UniProtKB/TrEMBL annotation:
InterPro entries: ATPase_NBD, ROK, ROK_cs. Pfam families: ROK. This is ROK family protein. It comes from the Bacteria. Belongs to the ROK (NagC/XylR) family. It comes from Aerophobetes bacterium. Coiled coil: none annotated. Gene3D superfamilies: 3.30.420.40.
Amino acid sequence: MSLKKGIIGVDLGATNINSLLMSEDGEILARDFRPSLGYQGKEKVLSQIFSSIKTLQKEGEKSGVSSFLGIGVGSPGPLSVSKGIIYHSPNILGWENIPLVDILQKEFNLAVFLENDANAAALGEWWRGAGKGIDYLFLLTLGTGIGGGIIIDGNVYHGAWDAGAELGHMVIKEGGMSCGCGARGCLEAYASATGVVKRTISAIKHNHKTIITRLIQNDLNNLTCELVFKAAKQGDELALWIVEETGRYLGIGVGSLINILNPQIVILAGGMIKAGDILLKQVKKYAMLNSLKASREKVEIVPAKLGENSGAIGAVATVLKRKGII
């Protein structure tokens, strides 16, 4: 059996931990998926991270891995890439000012690198996914919230204090809907899955006729973004209007970012892209309407390719990038 070097990438979420063992050339050698158990507190989460990494180390030995180049962790912020500290996570009990890099280095005696989860997803798509071979791109993660990652000249853009690329919090409507960040009118407030549900509920309460009420059995607590897209695909007038409006809001944001960043490609990731062309066509339409000809002329807007492994693959890529291997 040939010997090879392995890298472990950990995608840390409030609900689950998805970890991969990969080779330098991007082959997935093993995967570990387990609940993060954030509601049980920080010590339990750390124990879950340790167990996940140790499981992959054992799998690596079986796969002929001779040594490990390091561990990469993609995590929701706010965090400091340079200090290796996660400042806060509202969904993990007691997760405050956690020096995760130091903790993991002491536990495993390996190089450890921390990255924002959306940045990691962008880097993963740049390395092995929809952005492979592309040096200028940005990625939007469309889910419960909206995250973002920017690649400039093949490198992740972090900003002066590791707070760059909070793309979901660009304001698209002054004085608009309130956002979880405390501001009003953010892209996330309108165009995330949460925003889609809120706008649909508001429309239903204003007596707009829709098959959605039947799909949710007249209980608004059952409403999900997926059901709105399902109704739209069945030709429901209200749902189609909500989807077009969502595409318009996203297109305004994407168009503005195209003007600012002049990327070669825009990648849309996250659960909402499962809606397919019914959403993607609207985003493309309004992005083109809201960007300059010189900026938009050659840009492509595409769905992500790596699926649920994008964050973990990006965490592996973070190790390789910081070590100067890619």
